[in-house]
């Protein structure tokens, strides 16, 4: 398959704007510079041409920009499929699991708000290749983080949020205390 190596610049660059999407739309792979939009266009064309499911695998280390790359691919599909203004699918898919994100994000040595989930996003298209829906499945990657953290890392954010709320009446029955009181938790 096609491999694209992308680097997270940790700042917004003008290479993901609407005009860039249109520049890559309809182009053949290799006719333009390597880009997430080139990969998305190739998958989109093959889906339309072969009428078969396509996959884009976004992989990398913590803080590498995997979620952002997935957002750009979804934005590309919504724009070239003519459904960007109708559905705002990118925002809907990514906002579909805020509770899961609150539970599954943690501080790592490379990223203060790193998702500890693997995500599998399925995007459904109609016969005109417009996005009609999406489904996101999440897989918790680090169950061990609950009882152990590496040096300079933290448990899941929700743990600290619950401990900070321990004095609220609705949390009294949970018998929570300061997070530093829990074994294996470093503050």
TrEMBL record:
Residues 1-187 form the Myosin motor domain. GO terms for molecular function: actin filament binding; ATP binding; microfilament motor activity. PROSITE patterns: MYOSIN_MOTOR. Pfam families: Myosin_head. The keyword Cell division does not apply. InterPro entries: Kinesin_motor_dom_sf, Myosin_head_motor_dom-like, P-loop_NTPase. One of its GO terms (biological process) is actin filament organization. The keyword Nucleotide-binding applies. One of its GO terms (cellular component) is myosin complex. ATP binds at residues 60-67. Keywords: Actin-binding, ATP-binding, Motor protein, Myosin, Nucleotide-binding. Belongs to the TRAFAC class myosin-kinesin ATPase superfamily. Myosin family. This is MYO5B protein. It comes from Nothocercus julius. The gene is Myo5b_2.
């Amino acid at each position: 398959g096609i491999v694209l190596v992308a680097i997270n610049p940790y700042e917004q660059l003008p290479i993901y704007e609407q005009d860039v999407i249109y520049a890559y739309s309809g182009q053949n792979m290799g006719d333009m510079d390597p880009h997430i939009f080139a990969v998305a266009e190739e998958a989109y064309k093959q889906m339309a041409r072969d009428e078969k499911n396509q996959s884009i695998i976004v992989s990398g280390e913590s803080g590498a920009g995997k979620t952002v790359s997935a957002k750009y691919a979804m934005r590309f599909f919504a724009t070239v499929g003519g459904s960007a203004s109708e559905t705002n699918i990118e925002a809907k898919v990514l906002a579909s699991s805020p509770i899961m994100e609150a539970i599954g994000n943690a501080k790592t040595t490379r990223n203060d708000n790193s998702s500890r989930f693997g995500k599998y996003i399925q995007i459904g298209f109609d016969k005109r290749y417009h996005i009609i829906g999406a489904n996101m499945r999440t897989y918790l990657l680090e169950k061990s983080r609950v009882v152990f953290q590496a040096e300079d890392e933290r448990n899941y954010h929700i743990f600290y949020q619950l401990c900070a709320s321990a004095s609220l009446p609705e949390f009294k029955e949970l018998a929570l205390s300061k997070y530093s009181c829990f074994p294996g938790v470093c503050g």
